[in-house]
What does this fold into?
Amino acid sequence: MDKPNKRILSGVQPSGDLHLGNYLGAIKNFVSLQQEYECFFCVVDLHAITVWQDPNVLANKTREVTAAFIASGIDPKKNNIFVQSQVPQHAQLAWIFNCVARMGWLNRMTQFKDKAGKNSENVSVGLFSYPTLMAADILIYLATHVPVGDDQKQHLELTRDIAQKFNNDFNTDLFPIPEPLIFGEATRVMSLRDGSKKMSKSDPSDYSRIMLTDSAENIIQKIKKAKTDAEPLPENKNNLDGRPEAENLISIFASLQNSSFEKVISEYAGKDFATFKKDLADLSVSKLEPITTEMNRLMNDISYIDSILNTGKEKAISVAEPVLQKTKQIIGFLSK
Ligand code: AMP
Ligand code: TRP
It folds into this structure.
């Protein structure tokens, strides 16, 4: 069993349509990291079923996330792209981590509180224990780095706590303490309708998000309708206090352009939002349309997508299985 010092694992759920937040907060960063790290990119369908998924669409969504990875520029030959439920070692390690993580730790998870809302008696047990599965996704590969959007920071802290506690409890150094990689100008993309809510797959309003499957006309329309305020763009960042919608659109612009927030502000200072939105719409279409076109092309070639996932699965299992066996041996389970 090798102990890598630069290995990435990250996951994206095949629930709903991928949106600009997924792209700018996560997938775009995966693309930039693939040269430097050995990468495992996982379509996390076990996570998706923590809320009910329609069996008639789940398989298609799983392939669509795979297509989005490839269309965005992840080289499927160089990286391992695979489906979580096809690698049973994730769920096996997750059970062990359920016995390591403490109730108090999980009770603090804000994503659970947000998703469960007032309905906490009636959500699945899986939704509550979700972060222990995420820890297993990462640690079953002994991954050292995890690129994610800002919303996953707390889950990564929990992953680190689980790794540390397991190592202490069993007097081992098996698991690394993985580092989050949260970077770029749009680590938390907000809803286009409400700058206080993050852009998400589950928002009932289609106008709250730009999806990777949107046509150019849809993108233009959504940006045109995006909420802003009556003021022009400010001279500097400090003048954006209390203007979350304006701040969000500027961050999106900077990230899409691979530029910086400050640079975009200085370019547009004093201009009105109608002008800015027009340029943002043009920029969005120019960056996203090629990805959408390539995703559509790939989705017409399901056998190619499945062959990538099959290769990814075999590689993933070959790395995960020895780590699982080692974990079981450390715990004192009878070996095979
Ligand atoms: P999910 O769609 O929940 O599976 O998220 C997949 C990846 O996208 C994770 O790394 C998230 O942190 C990231 N992500 C999701 N929503 C946003 C958002 N609104 N802004 C930035 N990153 C996001
Ligand atoms: N929890 C992540 C999200 O909702 C998805 C995820 C599952 C993940 N397992 C992971 C991200 C492992 C990074 C590493 O966005």
User: Anything to note?
Assistant: The first helix runs from residue 20 to 33. The pocket of adenosine monophosphate (ligand 1) is lined by residues 12-13, 21-22, 25-26, 148-149, 151-152, 187-189, 198-201 (CB under 6 Å). The mean pLDDT is 97. Residues 71 and 291 are 5 Å apart (CA to CA).
